[in-house]
Amino acid sequence: MKSLGLGLIITAVAATGVIATSVHQARRSATVRLETNLPNLPGPVHIGTPQNVRSANVGRSAVSRPPFLAPAGTTNVALGKPVTTSSKPILGRAGMITDGNKEAADRSCVELAGGLQNVTIDLGAEHDVYAVLVWHDYKRPKTYFDVIVRTAEAPDFLTNVWTLFNNDHDNSAGLGAGTDRDYIETNDGELIDAKGVKARYVRLYSNGNNANDLNHYIEVEVHGKPAK
Ligand SMILES: [Ca+2]
Ligand SMILES: [Ca+2]
């Protein structure tokens, strides 16, 4: 296991011994196990469903996810990239969303106003995107509502738009009803499969959480490679 210094740990999956055919041999050499350094919680790991969650579609409690494979060379291409927000942050500043700091502390958290808000990351150029990881405020077992993650070619989000995740079950955000599950925030973050879409811009929506109407981000990672 090799640490790449940017908070990312990539582990080659060369020796799994599971894949047999020559085609899969080639794929095996071209893929790596994508992981990220997970921040520690300040206290005991929280388990269970938070109280007073409006939605019944809560999917899981704190569990580590299975390995996620991505092409070799995949890195967090959002690190240090500019972020714009739909409203001026109440606490923190937009750039903290891609600064690599995932600490569970109020000083690491960007707080946006209540209601439907979004943050947009400009990757600076078109990338092949394989995964998006998002940490809202995971210090407590919160569930955020209307979590929608989209990618696009241009900042107007009118061209080549892909929706990677959508748990807005009643279409209250007006971007179409989604079928993804609500989830409880943990230090694992939420890993969203982007399936190699080509994108320059990544936009994440949310509409408050089960504790209050505010929106929070500690970090967003976009794992990808420059598009060829
Ligand atoms: Ca951060
Ligand atoms: Ca909704």
Please give a structural write-up.
It is a single chain. The chain has 228 residues and is mainly beta. The protein has a single domain, classed as Jelly Rolls. The protein is 4% helix and 36% strand. It has 1 helix and 13 strands; from the N terminus they run E-E-H-E-E-E-E-E-E-E-E-E-E-E. The strands form 3 sheets. Strands 5, 6, 8, 9, 10, 11 and 13 form a 7-stranded antiparallel beta sheet that branches. Strands 1-2-3-4 form a 4-stranded antiparallel beta sheet. Strand 1 and strand 2 (8-12) form a beta hairpin. The chain is globular. It binds calcium ion (2 copies).
Q: What features would you highlight for this structure?
A:
228 residues; globular; mainly beta; disordered N terminus; binds calcium ion; four-stranded antiparallel sheet; single chain; Jelly Rolls
Question: What's this model, at a glance?
Answer:
The chain is mainly beta. It is 4% helix and 36% strand. The protein has a single domain, classed as Jelly Rolls (Sandwich), CATH 2.60.120.260.
